Amino acid sequence: MEKNENDLTQEEDSQVVKGTTRRGFLSTMGKIAAAAGLLGSGAGMEALSGCAKAPTSTASVPASVAKALVAPGKWDKYMGFWSGGPSGEVRVKGIPSMKTLLRIPVFNNDTGRGYGLTGDDQSEKMLQDAGGYYEGDTHHPHLSYTDGDFNGKYLYINDKSAGRIARIRLDYFQTDAITALPNVSAVHGLATQRYPKTGYVFAASEFEVPMPNDGRDIVPTGNNAAQTKNYWTLLSAVDGETMAVKWQVMVDGNQDNMTTDYKGLYVAATCYNADKGWNVPTMTKPPVAWAVFVNIPRVEAAVKAGKYKTIGKSSVPVLDGRHGSDLTYYVPVEKDPHGISPTPDGKYFVANGKLAPKVTVIDLEKVFKEKNPKDAVAAVLTVGVGPLHTVYDGRGNAYTTLFVDSQMVKWNIEDAIKAYNGDKKVKPIIQKLDVQYQPGHNAATQSDTNKPTGEWLVSLNKFSKDRFLPVGPRFPENDQLIDISGHKMVLVSDNPVYIEPHQATIALADRIKYVKKVYDPKYFANHVAGGTEGVKRIGPHRVIVKLTGVAPILTPVYFHVKEGDIVTVIYSNNDSVENLAHGFNMTMHGKNINIDPGETKEVTFTADRAGVYWYFCTIFCHALHLEMRGRMIVEKVPGYRSRPIKPNRLSGKPSFDERFKDFPEVGKA
Ligand code: K7E
Ligand code: CUA
For a disulfide at 390, which of 92, 201, 400, 625, Cβ 3.0-4.6 Å? Predict the structure, then answer.
């Protein structure tokens, strides 16, 4: 007979007594609720713990597809970190299941996680200090390293929009710092130092602007190069521990993507706008642009020797790395190179031609050594139309996305070099696989380290066209999983994804080794201990409310303030059961936060309209979760001009989207 999900093993039962696991907690809670007559015994418990039985038949499934199945209750072998494009967030996925495990708000406002403008004070302040923008365009997630492999401490991510970089700590999986880079526009490329450790986090600004960009150097626009003559871009180096900007290097042209080597010597950025053009024809005119290499030890020595200037109000050292400088080395690449990445053996960088159907292999032993940078090129290989990004399997093969051809091309690096040197017998291209459609980045297991595993490859496609059920004009994008363990690539699964799967990096799950399950309350200086809850007036219009949650009890269950008071709620989740979060939503005040076990958060709002406002828990924490609520009683203050009530609420009339005013009724077109 099949085991009933609700039957506890002896071990689980003892955990119920200790109340230490979520399952134990849920069971205790279920039993209490059942005793209180709130739930039917079995069905209620199943609904609470989500124990749906989902047997999956694999009988008729091809072998590589079956290999990617992760059975219910089992864990993925790999953890992937995805940027979310203009959603401004980062996502965590399991590989090969491709299941999304978590979404981490970074530059955005997230009402689910209670982050940003409508969330807790700490995240709001972090975003305010970094410019006060609540949107961002996340492109390039990169993990921190020790000796060329992931060390599991941090993930860094850029915001192209406002020129910022953020750090996510990988014990709590939360954004903990954001740095706004001075004198840049559109930070696109991001790369982390791989050796000996991170070390530096590098950021390449893409759009050329006057330095400083304060109204100077604005010449009349027209069809001449004079208008952008004094526009520049900077390659910035940030300390990955302090998140402070250490130095910046001014380069020629513009910068696109960037990468670092496995020796800690170089960071390189591709350029797609060598002539500093201002429209499509002028940007795409030069037949050859470059990858600019920055020599890290030389820059450090120059900073030490004081050979720098500062720009505008920023105190960050800026070094001149334009043509002629010994800090930089410009390797020519056809035509407007885009992605650039190091081969796992540390020997080469591969730059992808974008507007040339070619990849260029650059020999790292030769950069800064060959007098003519052209001679640092080890190979140029024609791969197909629109090569954007390249990853590796650790067996000498590279996988390049072809945006225009909608293909993944597998090629051999040493064979490409042999062919470039005149060997007519070798065939560097191994296979071209159709993907659906228009791949930008790709990511392979451990490919961003010196220990790639060559098991799985993901193609991050910008289009899905006909792959999924239609959901209006905005189609899902498509992460396709490909098995690369054999000689031939095999397409394994289609995975629709929300805007936008920009880039990903995939680590063996055991590399992410500092994951915590609960917060230690002692790290919160503002922690509210049980028994110390209450309301305190600290100024004529300033009130602090100390609040605790221990499922399902919220303390206090009411507090009084006066109209016009600025109220800060300090909420400590004093449950130490893993996975037991609480939410705190102050109705009709636009604020929602959530508080993980052991965590303390603050949220501030103005009590600007007299009345009774319930606050309630938004995270399903207990059978009595709905009862976990209390009241803010706002007393009328004579003469105070309270926040007006919107007319729609008074008249009961709906609010319509004006855009659809002249559209026919659904189904009548
Ligand atoms: Cu190729 Cu922003 Cu990574 Cu787009 S860059 S694809
Ligand atoms: Cu606390 Cu729901």
Answer: 400
Give the E-state strand segments of 142-263 in sequence order: 142-146, 149-159, 164-169, 174-180, 187-192, 200-205, 209-210, 231-239, 245-251, 258-260
Q: Which ligand is nearest to the CA of 500?
A: 1
Q: Which atom of ligand 1 is nearest to the CA of 339?
A: 1
CB of 625 shorter than 6 A to ligand 2: yes
Residue 664 DSSP symbol: P
Q: Where are the beta strands (DSSP E) in 218-369?
A: 231-239, 245-251, 258-260, 266-271, 288-295, 318-320, 328-334, 340-342, 348-352, 358-363
Contact 247, 202 (CB under 8 A): no
Report pLDDT digits (tens) over 28-77: 545 554 454 444 333 333 333 333 344 455 456 788 889 999 999 999 99
Q: Topology of domain 521-635, per CATH? A: Immunoglobulin-like (2.60.40)
Two tokens, residue 489? 């690539």
Residue 457 CA to residue 455 CA, distance in Å, equals: 7
Residue nearest to atom 1 of ligand 2 (CA): 582
To test the ligand 1 pocket, which listed residue (254, 255, 257) has its Cβ within 8 A of the most ligand atoms?
257
Ligand 2 pocket, residue 597 CB under 6 Å: no
- Contact (CB, 8 A) for 91 and 79: no
CA of 501 to the centre of ligand 1 (A): 10
Backbone angles phi, psi at 512, to 5 degrees: -95, 85
Mean pLDDT (the chain, rounded): 92
This prediction's pTM: 0.91
**Span from the CA of 141 to the centroid of ligand 1 (angstroms):** 11
Domain boundaries, the chain: 10-68, 229-382, 521-635
The Cα-based distances of 114 to 362, 396, 585, 619 in angstroms read 46, 45, 9, 11
Length in residues, the chain: 669
**Could you say which DSSP state residue 658 is in?**
G
Distance 441 CA to ligand 1 centre (A): 6
CB of 354 sitting under 6 A from ligand 1: no
Nearest ligand 1 atom, CA 188: 2
Q: Relative to the alpha carbon of 573, which ligand is closest? A: 2
Spacing, Cα 554 to ligand 2 middle (Å): 9
Beta strands in 27-106 (DSSP E): 78-83, 89-95, 100-105
State residue 278 phi and psi, 5-degree precision: -125, -5
The torsion angles phi and psi of 230, rounded to 5 degrees, stand at -105, 25
User: Could you tell me if the CB of 628 is within 6 A of ligand 2?
Assistant: yes
Cβ(141) to ligand 1 under 6 A? no
| Range in 43-47, 74-78, 306-310, 528-532 with the lowest mean pLDDT | 43-47
